[in-house]
Amino acid sequence: MRIVIILGTRPEIIKMSPVIRACEKQGLDYIILHTGQHYSYNMDRVFFEQLDLPEAKYNLDVGSGSHGEQTGKILGGVERILMEERPDVVLVEGDTTTVLAGALAATKLHISPYRACGVMGQSPIKVGHVEAGLRSYDRQMPEEINRVLADHCSDYLFAPTENARKILIGEGVPDATIFVTGNTIVDAVYQNLELASSRKNALNDLNLEPKNYFLVTAHRQENVDVKKRFEGIIRGLERVADEFDLPVVYPIHPRARKMMNHFELKANGIELIEPVDYLSFLQLESRAKLVLTDSGGVQEETRS
Ligand code: UD1
Ligand code: UDP
């Protein structure tokens, strides 16, 4: 069985790392296809290096752009590679543009262009969606559209919880295609937490004492792309720093950094730092007094 693992952003690299390690361990025939949705060193390569992941065989280098532009570029690029590689299964993880476009590219090859792409007679490419069945029920979120559509074009739905399975069944997904697996972020945390506490001391580097600082991440489009909302979040963080008289550390996502500059927002008394590597982040997370976040992965991690 040939597997193509499609990933493109920071959380996908982290959450797919246990799956990649499992494929390695079992000697499976798999390759990694990176879409290049994330490309800055500290959003991409640092995780491959630190988690000791094999190189992607392909990188589409799609970079940043509007939703439509990114989706279109990934769709075309993935289709071309799938026609070349002819895998049995494509795996995607989560709810990003990479996930939707990757799943859709594989699914479309089920349907019509068999003749055109020269794979007539080959079995259809199956799509496996890791982290299936999550819903916010907010269709304003780009991620909600991505996860619903990815689920509905997948053949194997790897649901993190029983509740996610129920949601999928409620939407008419056949029970036999759903597998409750848990969330791979839990594996990622447990595989790396020990390493994180023994190897790095992120707290020293930042002059922090355990349980005496707040850790923040905020990057959701609907939070940081609207001036009033982002400003409100920053003013709230400033009040936290002031009232508790403790450091508030915010490794700032490039989208949030870009919007802060664009809106000319200042954050007084908040330590804005570049996004950090995974082991440092795990250590900062596990020793913080409190984590304030709008990140899906960070919420799951802190509960692991
Ligand atoms: C994407 C996902 C979001 C996920 C997040 C994880 C979609 C629709 N959104 O949001 O669900 O939570 O990744 O971090 O897929 N940029 C860089 N360097 C990079 C990547 C991005 O500078 O390596 C900047 C660019 O200015 C870009 C902006 O960040 O325009 C947004 O990047 P994009 O990938 O479009 O969306 P994210 O906000 O990262
Ligand atoms: N993370 C990291 N460095 C940071 C901030 C976050 O390694 O500076 C990790 C974090 O441990 C988690 C993942 O990035 O595993 C979450 O990604 P993000 O918040 O970008 O996306 P989301 O989960 O919201 O889609």
Bound molecules: uridine-diphosphate-N-acetylglucosamine, uridine-5'-diphosphate
Mean pLDDT: 94
The total count of strands amounts to 11
Strand-pairing-aware structural class = alpha/beta
Task: Describe the protein's topology.
Blueprint: E1 2-7, H1 10-25, E2 29-34, H2 45-50, E3 58-59, H3 67-85, E4 89-93, H4 97-111, H5 114-117, E5 126-130, H6 142-152, E6 156-159, H7 162-170, E7 178-180, H8 184-199, H9 202-205, E8 214-217, H10 221-224, H11 227-244, E9 248-251, H12 254-263, E10 271-273, H13 278-287, E11 290-293, H14 296-302
Parallel strand pairs: 1-2, 1-4, 2-3, 4-5, 5-6, 6-7, 8-9, 8-11, 9-10
Helix pairs in contact: 1-8, 3-4, 4-6, 8-13
Bound molecules: uridine-diphosphate-N-acetylglucosamine (UD1) and uridine-5'-diphosphate.
Give a structural overview.
The protein has helices at residues 10-25, 45-50, 67-85, 97-111, 114-117, 142-152, 162-170, 184-199, 202-205, 221-224, 227-244, 254-263, 278-287, 296-302; strands spanning 2-7, 29-34, 58-59, 89-93, 126-130, 156-159, 178-180, 214-217, 248-251, 271-273, 290-293. The chain folds into two domains: 2-192, Glycogen Phosphorylase B (Rossmann fold, 3-Layer(aba) Sandwich); 201-303, Rossmann fold, CATH 3.40.50. A seven-stranded parallel β-sheet has the order 3-2-1-4-5-6-7, sandwiched between helices. It has a four-stranded parallel β-sheet with strand order 10-9-8-11, with helices on both faces. Helices cover 49% and strands 15% of the residues. Helix 7 (162-170) links the parallel strand 6 and strand 7. It has 304 residues and is of the alpha/beta class. It contains 14 helices and eleven strands. It binds uridine-diphosphate-N-acetylglucosamine and uridine-5'-diphosphate.
